[in-house]
Write the structure tokens for this entry.
Amino acid sequence: MSSMGREAMTLLDQAATFSEPGPGVTRVLGSAEHQALLVEMRQWFESAGAEVSLDGAGNLVGRWAGTDPSARTLIIGSHQDTVRQGGRYDGIMGVLLPLVVLQQRQAEGRPLPYPVELVAFSDEEGTRFSSTLVGSAALAGTFDPTLLQATDADGVTMEQALRDLGADPAIIPAAARDPQQVSGFLELHIEQGPLLEAENLPVGIVTAITGIERHDLRIIGKAGHAGTTPMHLRRDALVGASEVVQLLDQLCRDTDELVGVVGQLKVIPDAVNVIPGAVEMSLELRSPQTRIRRRARDILLQQIEQALKARHLDWEHRLNYEQTEVSCSPRIQSTLAAAIQDQGLETRYLFSGAGHDGLAMESLTDIGMLFMRCEDGLSHHPDEAVTIDDLDVTAQTLDRFLDHWAEANQ
Ligand SMILES: [Zn+2]
């Protein structure tokens, strides 16, 4: 077995030390820890033979020109930042593992016939400024400059945070890539789910990044004395809401490729001896297929209407967010499949239930993702864990992908 997995783990362990104190890893955009990691990573990129630059959005970009610098560039990348008290692998694994692979190729004198850029995106999670996909939007040319004036909890602007990183926000527009010059975007990421572990597979090919819709729902009943109002005369909004929770849960259990949750619920007036007069709640549905998600929405709204009507409750709802899914390119999926089959491994296809930089990169180029197994499917948590063996298989898969990608682009 090669040592790429072990080398990657060493770098990942080092990267994890660049964290605010406390459990897990906390590295938010422009923090002192982020600044320090960026300085360190720049050296790692340089010693791997890359030509390195920092763009206006704080993305660290390493470029290996290959033997035909006029060929279209493959972009590989993931994010440098974490959620608060997150793990050691979400994001940064997709930077440092490819770095090890590219370094190894450089050391072995196996250059590629096309340029590769490895991008460490500055901010994907949006932990500090509540604005996700900052780095990838800059590459895609969709960065919204008004975001620079967004402030964190202490009133510091994003513009200042980027300057603290050593980036010059004035040149963000120059980070936008010419779609004609890019052949695709590939991200390696931990699965953040339990499927690969359950099936004892180290890697899986992502078919799509999920679509998401969120609704605000308000159920209106009648508040009243909890002791003196007879049961048959009550219009208890919370009892109605509990049915809605059950309906959504059951519909998602009964439908393939659909998940959903009621994550927020506010009871009005929220008093121990008052019948709930109103409930405000969120509904979220996710699916990699718009057709499935919209059909589920229609069914759910119909079921809610029936259930609440039977309880003489009124209701209103508003769709407040809808992000269409992004499909992964068939060409990238089949190239990943070839790379996995080369190793005699089973190809498993799965969709991503979480958002990723591909959501922004899709407007620039074909996107694809390779998922790596993680322990208990856990992410955004200090106990996030992966094995050296899985890192190694993932590294081998990328190495072979890079060769197959040359064939796929002839
Ligand atoms: Zn991530």
Summary: The mean pLDDT is 96.
